[in-house]
Records
---
Amino acid sequence: MGNYIIGIDLGGTNLKAGIVDTDGKILHRLSTKTNSHADSQIISNQILLLIAEIIQGARIKESDMIGVGLGSPGLVDKRGETVLFSPNLPRWRNIPIKRIVAERFSKPCVLENDANAAAWGEKWAGAGKEVRSLVMLTLGTGIGGGIVIDNKLWRGASNVAAEIGHMVIQMDGPQCNCGNRGCVEVYASATGMVRRFKEVLKSGKFSSLKISDEITARMISDAAFQGDRASLDIIEETGRYLGIALINIMHILNPEMIVLAGGMIGSGELLMNPIRQVTQRGAFEASYKDTKIVFSQLGNDAGIIGAAGCLLTELEISV
């Protein structure tokens, strides 16, 4: 048995890889832009190439490599072998990526939903080390979710549980990439926040950012820290939408912890304050009191570390 796992985190924007040890530490990393609108073969080849590059770059022996943990957005089949559908990677469908990776490198591979992997990363090596139950939301291009109950990932009857981003909070809201209307992802993902911000600018509200700019969630956050009123308002509104989702989570699952991760947590307390205000006002007191809402400790590394940890769990190697 080797000493290292390759963790892969496939996102709608970036494809990231890391060499992870059995304590959950990343020793070497690489990333590249995801060719998100490419066909499935191109994305598969991107993954294979990145794995080969990180093995070569880290100068590890093949015998030192336990295997590959792969976190992918979207729905994974019951057997954990095939990516069925991913709203933010429209042509990434029915891909037997577990078999493709395992055959290419002659090593065990585990395939997990990316947000499940990130949730397991926080449970194994991050904010949730001391709790038995947590729910994680990954706030990026879309919104993913992962649930840990009694120290085990909860995947549901069809392996598609915790699609929190597709919780409908407004039945007649804008259409989501999943096909439904009014999903929380439409309002509170980075993509949704940028869309709503542009609508505000079109309505004539003043901002230091201009509608002609290539606006990103990071730009909105930076402008908010500089006191831009329109940016502050849109982040506060985003926090309120997230708060509604968290109330539902508290009332259904009553977890010990809810972890927020992804690029949007860079807004810090500007985002967290309205989340806490809405949940304190709307959740049952017992639910709110006993559920900690925290930011990820592992940050953008949660998916890589969690994917690696999922492989160790699959192989029944103690983590």
---
Amino acid sequence: MAPVTHLLNTSSDPTIGLGCMNLCHAYGTPLTDAEALHALREAFEMGYRHFDTATLYGATLNEKLVGEALAPYRNQLFLASKCGMARDPELQRKVIDGRPEVLRRQCEESLVRLKTDHLDLYYLHRLDFQIPIEESVGELGRLVEEGKIRGIGLSEVSASTLRRAASEHPITALQSEYSLWTRNPEVATLAACRELGTAFVAFSPVGRGFLGGKLKDVSTLVEGDVRLGMPRFSAENYPRNLERLQDVLALAEQLDCTPAQLALAWLRSQGDDILPIPGTRSIAHMQENLAASDILLAPEVVARLDDMLRDVDGDRYSEAQLKEIDTESVPAAER
């Protein structure tokens, strides 16, 4: 397997990217447009080169912000976005739609918002269970042929779906949640990625803030925060999960790094084909996360972390959200 940096522009680019979603979507109170633009430009200045956005985020606002902030640096960036899941303005709700004509339209609209003539990586954000994956990927392949996208990605799909997709067109990357407390990719998709030469992009590598150790009380989350609907963050489960986190916090202190940096360093130790994309709206946290690129963990530390947080209370998604994804599940006894 080639190093994951083959996704980026040069081998010197950092192996930690920036998930842009929560600048204006899903977590806490969104930044103002001016604050978001400033944060994105600061991220570039401090060294981020891989930026990940989507049509869904902020109902297209996220792409507009990324485009406005980073267009002057486009030839220095690895830019990724996603299609197939968007907010329908008439229905006023999220819609998953993998029809070829929809994916093409969303791609062309994304290019306008992002102020570019191509995307380095374009993901099918969710599998549309009504549309064969071969049809969706076939259309993305035609976008590759036309130069509108450089590589095809899939998000939150199973190993079997990945293999079916790869039979239609090579898949550059698979993106799913992976962290110390979310080991689902270890069931099958990591092995399938390595079999096919597909890079693995890990979102929520700091456990949606949990692994940072600073969220002590979920009642402090603002209304509308996506974590309030996730079983792991429930008032019943979260205190028990916090107790399990104490060993990680103690180890981070022993190693003189932050818990978030330790979580990212562990993830990078799992293979050079794994690229974490932590998301944050905080410039200080962006700096903290990027600095984890320089942390190399000793094998014995990795082994200790491997055994931490496997036992977690609660699924990572609500029942409704679990119906939207195609990934393998870790048995409850092993979470």
---
Amino acid sequence: MSATSVLYDVPGPRARLRNNVLTLLSAIVILGIAYLLIKGLGDKGQLAAKLWTPFLQWDVWSGQIFTGLLGTLEAAALAAVLALIFGVVFGLGRLSDQAWIRVPSGAIVEFFRAIPLLLLIFFIQAGVATMSGYTIGVPAFVAVVVGLTLYNGSVLAEIFRAGVLSVPRGQSEAGYSLGLRKSGVMRLILLPQATTAMMPAIVSQMVVLLKDTALGWVIAYEELLNYGLKQIPANFGNLIPSAIVISLVYIAINLVLSYVANRLERRSRRSRRTTATVVTAPAAVGVSGGGGV
């Protein structure tokens, strides 16, 4: 193997020993923390069999956990589709050469990214009725879906914009030299390459969207967290065990979603080459340019 094919120096005996010692110490610390948590739960009586046996009953799963899970998946699936559409429209709008399209698109994206999602969901449900003077409020499902769409769609708009801008300028210049219009360059050259670069960030945001459905609990939307922290503990008095089980359900769903998305990403990378750099999700709200491509 040539020296140029190695990205880092092969660790020597001392480095391997140091890495093994650090790994062992880390494992000991993790096991120690786990022991303290389990011991604390036991001392507080949270490991008592009567608190966990409800989760061995099929009616608890079919009548409550699966019902809440269905509400979570319904809201997440619809919001994901709408957020992707929102993100594509306003992401491309921020790339427009026309100021009357680019500026309002940027203002909308920054506005909804700046509002905490919990407040956004609350205002959508209660604010409409309050401002209009009518007593009929927005249904909880609609409020959750609209809130998730506006917030996550704004984040996806930045991801789409960054993905298109990550493609080297020479790609678009080559398209223009062949006589393509801007729409053709975007559709045939930029978007196919940008999609592969954007996939990890899109997957990450979809996982965030799925977890954010739990915020519907504040407006009594019947989703997984509502059943796990309210209805099941009300029946069996097992708040901590219920929270642990619901957390494991969330983890399982997100692992499945990440696995499927990673498979799709690998297939996309094998079938399509791209010169774009990998895009990461925006971490904070900020003012950024939205110039045309």
---
Amino acid sequence: MGSFRSTDRNRPGSPAMHASPARKLLRTGAALAMAGVLALTPMGTAAQAQGGIPLVRDAEAEALMRDYAGPIFDAAGIARQQVDIVLVNRNDFNAFVADARRIFINIGVITDAETPGEVIGVLAHETGHITGNHLVRLRQALANAQIIAVIGAVLGAGAIAAGSSSGSSGISQGGAGALTAGAGLAQRSLLAYRRGEESIADRAALTFLQKTRQSARGMLKTFARFADQTLFSAQYTDPYAQSHPMPRERLTQLETVARQSPYWDAPEDPQLQARHDMVRAKLIAFTAHPNTVARDYPRSDNSLPAEYARAVVTMRTRSRKEAVAAIDKLIRRQPDNPYFHELKGQALLESGNPKAAIAPFRQALSLRPREAQFQIWLGFALVAANDNSLLPEAERILKAGLQVDENSPIGHSQLAIALGRQGKTAEADVATARGLMARGDFEAAKRYAARAQKNLKRGTPAWLQADDIVSYKPPKLPGRS
């Protein structure tokens, strides 16, 4: 998923280049509100009780989605940094656009898809909705129905929480996981577009795929699945079948056009297929029951994805020693794979050994120096090591990560701890306030920001960040006075 952040951040000369981090954070919140967002809240029992749907952060999966979507965005005439792809921690098959800057995709889309083309086809179709300006009608529907979608802010600590399925108390208590929740996406049928708009998005997707010299077979395979579902029941298995109705005749017309492409028989990119297999195995291992993983990736399967899946399950269910041994086996097979080092760091951090986690996080970052999630993971480990000599580095690393992944509550909270332990109390209050803003707790954020302002020199960057928060007014939502 792309993280929730200002998409103007990398444009030279844009206002965002000169805005304070807090102001960019607030502007991102306003953009989410335009998509029907009420508040940003962390995952918890209350949120889940209200039907909250968790978002998931995983650097590896997000990088793959960006590489899938990049050529499609190019073909559509959309700047790659304009649209973030946000991963939703749901195993059913669903994807949708909530505004012109975000495509939400359930991890079930990835785990169900056997080939990259199936996911790329979905992304191409959703991009068609963006270029077709169909979101104007969607927002009107939101206003008329007074349905509020609540999307959780990204915690942004790094990879998926190992405890998402296993119920690990160490993860829930330590907060090292990478899941967040909102207080409920809109009803499943909310994103049901008119049939004409779906057809427009279909044709746009075919155009994008042809421009990028990719086959539409994956997209057709996905849509055929949902056309078959409509034959049996109105209570479809997957919400994608509800929001993207696919009558059989429409599918037939679409296939006729798709087969005319000179790239209909184009093979899948073997490198993307290999990465897809790895991410798919990883997501299944983190979210499915261990018995399911054992069935899908038995010991007799010596492939790298199978070994990856088994290592994740070992981390979730066995001792630290066994988990590290399993991950070290992966590292021996691919020493330069940054995600294996990240996984080792996560295993050590979440099992209560943050000092030992520092080295693998450093290695992951050295292999992928621009990865903000690795920076936040490393900063987390440096703070958790409880060594005051490491705090200046933790502060520097966390600030660097938050420059890119500015809506990370865990990044802000760890920065607040690092600053507070160094006696920088007012700056720590600003970091706490920014983390609370990312979580959607506006009132608490304002209290911390107001307290910080009293102890900061007027006009300094930290004072201005606090002032942004104190003066912030949540945007009005569609259909609400």
